[in-house]
Amino acid sequence: MIIHAKVGDFKTERVDAIAFGIFEGGTSLDGAPQAADAAMDGAIGELFESGDFKGELKQTSLLYTRGAIAAPRIGLVGLGKSENFNPEKARQAAAKIAQSIRDLGAKTFAIPLPPDTPEGIIQAIIEGFLLGLYQFNLHKTQDLDKIKALEAITIIVDDEDSLPAAEQAIEIGEIIAQGTILARDLSNQPANYLTPTMLADKAKTIADTTGLKCEILELAELKEKGFGALVGVAQGSQEEPRFIILEHIPDGDVQDSVVYVGKGITFDSGGLSLKPSRGMDEMKHDMSGAAAVLGAMQAIGRLRPNLHVVGLIAATENLPSGTAQKPGDVVTSYAGKTIEILNTDAEGRLVLADALGYAAKYDPKAVIDLATLTGAVVTALGHFAAGLLGTDDNLIEKIKHAADKTHERVWQLPLWEDYDEGIKSNVADVQNIGDGTAGTIAGAVFLKKFAGGYPWAHLDIAGTAWGVEGSSYIPKGASGYGARLLVQFARDWTS
Ligand code: BES
Ligand code: MN
Ligand code: ZN
After folding, report:
1. Is 91 among the catalytic positions?
2. Which ligand approaches the C-alpha of residue 264 most closely?
3. Which residues have CB under 8 Å from 100's CB, separation 6+?
4. Cβ 24 vs Cβ 79: under 8 Å
5. Is residue 5 within a helix (H) or strand (E), and if so which, with residue range?
6. How far, in Å, is the centroid of ligand 1 from the Cα of 187?
7. Other CB atoms closer than 10 Å to residue 220's CB: what's the count?
8. Which end of the chain is more exposed for a tag (fewer CB within 10 A), N or C?
9. Nearest CA to 371 among 454, 435, 301, 285?
10. 306 CA to centre of ligand 2 in angstroms
11. Would you call 349 a catalytic residue per the annotation?
């Protein structure tokens, strides 16, 4: 699908539909919709007078132009009340109108932008289009001809002066949406199509196409370098683990470093502490933290912010077998701390322990890990906010700010020392589960033991990565949560 911008007049644009966004509660039409109404002999005004279309957010309506303008259809989408309008409303409305035009079977549409549309709104519209049109059809072989897809969207601006800014906002929106789409594709991919090795190969390809640096550590090297926690989780599987290192090195002088860490469990059966079969299939997305990091790194490689950004992914399967690690086993993490494994299903924090230990070598100004870590965060927050916990107030504020902008919402939970008691082990330095209360906090308290020496924050995305409902630009299955947030965080970075 191609999106391009041009200076023009919607009335002569030869596309399958013209789309207009309309605010709720306006007393009269203005701008392009008014011109369309005039050309259509008052047909749009009549829609309002009849009460059939009010401009409520995501409400849509369709008119046939019957030769009044070059395009055969006009699609209207409600933007809600103008005083409430923001980039998130733009994403929601844009997704809705693009979907409804696509579902007609149309191939192209154009949207005239009101004069002085802010770049942030243009970017959000593009994100809404691309994310709303997302479909995961890779494994369908039947009735492919019935799958509808748009071919091109034209953004119309009314003068040459506003074209460059619009083009730039479109490009940024596309790059960021493509990062999220990459994250969705990876999370939706079944575990037999996305092993740790395949994930690492994907990272290499992304690095090659975007100019990122990429290094992959394989099993022998992981053993030798002391990734005992990651290797322990991987030992139950026939598939080898991989540790993926991606780096965006900015032009010019040495810059601050930030590290993004992703949980990359390509399938989580629970290991010997086996999960129940109901819903186990969803554990193919237990690498959604890794997916968000990869999606963000792809976008960062293209946008090239003035910041050294490292992406670390600890990838393995978590399976039961004769070689699997057992409850009671003790492993030694990358940084040297020993861990008693009391539940093999608390594997995410194990692989992250090694990754967080490794992160210290960059002397980072911030480390953010993303992980589908606990079912408890779904109980606490549902699917609309990720759990946010960390050791540095300034970093937490920066993350909240990025989350506001991208509408990938976060909600902070406490990390008070009182909770530390819960993960004390009788035989090792720490144990990998708490007492069963405050499960999301217990997970973060464990990670905190390995996130020493730098400002650190953890996002528990078990609820937000999958099964989000009610948003027009987030489909069933994987949401791609976190990719946009991480890109925003890097673009806004100030030391
Ligand atoms: N991958 C799961 C968490 C999860 C649950 C992700 C639901 C997405 C949706 C994680 O590895 C896990 O199994 N966590 C356990 C921890 C427990 C054993 C302390 C959990 O939440 O039950
Ligand atoms: Mn698990
Ligand atoms: Zn898991």
Report:
1. no
2. 3
3. 60, 62, 75, 77
4. yes
5. strand 2-7
6. 16
7. 9
8. C
9. 285
10. 36
11. yes
Helix/strand/coil (H/E/C) assignment for every residue in 195-215: CHHHHHHHHHHHHHHHCCEEE
DSSP assignment of 65-113: -TTSSSSSEEEEEEEEEGGG--HHHHHHHHHHHHHHHHHHT--EEEEEP
Output phi, psi for 485, to 5 deg: -60, -45
Q: Is the CB of 286 under 6 A from ligand 1?
A: yes
* Pair of tokens at residue 88: 């998130």
Mutate which of 318, 373, 461 for ligand 1? The one with the most ligand atoms within 8 Å of its CB, which is 373
Is the CB of 433 within 6 Å of ligand 1?
yes
Q: What is the pLDDT of residue 405?
A: 98
Which of 452, 431, 451 shows the shortest CA–CA distance to 442?
Answer: 431
Selecting among 11, 225, 275, 491, the annotated active-site residue is: 275
How many C-beta neighbours within 10 Å does residue 145 have? 6
The helix (H) or strand (E) run that includes residue 291 is: helix 288-303
What φ, ψ does residue 366 adopt, rounded to 5°? -160, 140
Residues 6+ apart with CB under 8 A from 201: none
Alpha-helical (H) ranges within 304-425 are 348-359, 376-381, 393-406
**Which residues does 223 contact at the CB level (< 8 Å), separation at least 6?**
231
Neighbour tally for 338: CB within 10 Å: 15
Q: pTM of the predicted model, to two decimals?
A: 0.98
Which is the closest atom of ligand 1 to the Cα of 376? 21
Residue pair 249/373 in contact (Cβ under 8 Å)? The answer is: no
pLDDT at 28 over 90: no
The more confident residue out of 256 and 28 is 256
* pLDDT score of 185 more than 90: yes
Q: Kindly report, residue by residue over 312-331, the tens digit of the pLDDT.
A: 999 999 999 999 999 999 99
Closest CA to 19 of 90, 83, 118: 90
How many Å apart are CA 408 and CA 381, to the nearest integer? 13
Query: Which of the residues 349, 405, 449, 484 is marked catalytic?
Result: 349
The two tokens of residue 48 are: 């309002």
Give the count of alpha carbons within 13 A of 206, CB side only: 31
- How distant, in Å, are the alpha carbons of 365, 383, 440, 459 from that of 447? 18, 22, 11, 11
**Cα separation of 354 and 243, whole Å?**
10
